[in-house]
Design a protein that fits this description.
The protein contains 16 helices and no strands. It is mainly α and 329 residues long.
Length: 329
């Protein structure tokens, strides 16, 4: 394993442990999702700042708000990596009110709002919120039984794109039909197709690269997950790295993680979930933090927004899993 890759792996572990110290009741999967927010931006968790953001949420939103649901720790983590957490939250709440006019309240909507607040100028919030709903309606028309509140995040991220709506949705639809025979879950394929639509390139080529990466990992004895993990697979395939190199790096990271506390046989996450985070760490070598920070400021989208979409899918799924586990106790 390359020295920098090992450093990235160690950063994920340290960030997970620091997140856990601030959110001890969240569970391993949600703590790891929050750690991923910091790690993909090459940020170390500062417990005092994260706790301040946790308290900021408590002070500014009602206990009944979806900002205080199981998504509260990911939202606090997103605030903690911003240059001005208080302003980011204020902007996020502003976007949330706009989105609430057209969407049912859900765990996904605050995440959508806070991501828009991160990546867009306040003067464009109203326009982006309206575009989000327009994209959602078109998506719902095409897939009435598949499209639900969880897709609002992808719609919001598409609304941030400079691409035309019709072309982007047509691209997503082409990807969906190409990939659907290869996976059991149509919802997961739809999320993957939305992610690929945010990336440049022809639909058939993007799908071919994604499947080559999936099959390559499977042949090496590291079968990638086929649920909410799929969007991160698409990002890796589109990252520009040689597929053989990416596969080898993911395997090395996965093997290393398997020896770490919380990632092994008796760990809090499954082998497939661990492999997804190995992929997220591997992305660091192909999507550098400086580029991501610049993109968040100047509005450049492409792979960087797709990266956000993939992380958001993991966060939302982790939040849902945490809620399910809590209700069963």
């Amino acid at each position: 394993m390359k020295e920098q890759t090992r450093t990235n792996c160690e950063q994920l572990i340290k960030n997970r442990d620091r997140v856990k110290s601030v959110f001890p009741w969240d569970g391993g999967l949600l703590n790891l999702a929050c750690a991923g927010i910091f790690t993909v931006r090459d940020k170390n968790v500062d417990e005092s700042v994260l706790k301040e953001c946790k308290d900021l949420l408590k002070q500014n939103v009602s206990v009944f708000s979806n900002f205080r649901s199981t998504a509260s720790s990911p939202i606090a983590s997103i605030l903690a990596i911003s240059s001005d957490p208080k302003q980011t939250l204020e902007n996020g709440l502003q976007v949330y009110q706009l989105l609430k006019k057209d969407f049912w309240a859900s765990t996904y909507l605050p995440l959508s709002a806070i991501l828009i607040a991160q990546m867009a100028d306040p003067s464009s919030y109203k326009e982006i919120a309206a575009r989000t709903r327009k994209i959602y309606n078109q998506m719902k028309q095409e897939h009435p039984f598949l499209t639900s509140s969880e897709d609002s995040t992808f719609c919001a991220l598409m609304a941030l794109s400079e691409k035309e709506d019709d072309k982007m949705l047509e691209d997503a639809e082409q990807c969906y039909h190409i990939l659907k025979p290869d996976f059991f879950s149509p919802n997961a394929v739809q999320s993957l197709s939305h992610t690929l639509a945010l990336c440049d390139g022809e639909a058939d080529i993007k799908c071919k690269k994604t499947m080559e990466l999936f099959e390559g990992l499977k042949a090496a004895g590291h079968k990638y997950g086929t649920d909410y993990d799929l969007p991160t697979l698409g990002i890796l395939a589109m990252s520009g790295g040689a597929l053989d190199e990416i596969i080898q790096e993911i395997i090395e990271i996965d093997d290393w993680l398997s020896q770490q506390k919380g990632f092994g046989f008796f760990g809090a996450i499954t082998r497939k979930q661990r492999l997804m985070y190995a992929g997220i760490v591997a992305q660091r070598d192909y999507l550098d933090a400086e580029t991501m920070q610049t993109a968040a400021i100047n509005g450049t989208i492409s792979l960087i927004v797709a990266q956000q979409a993939a992380m958001c899918a993991a966060i939302a799924a982790s939040s849902s899993a945490a809620a399910s586990a809590s209700s069963s106790n």
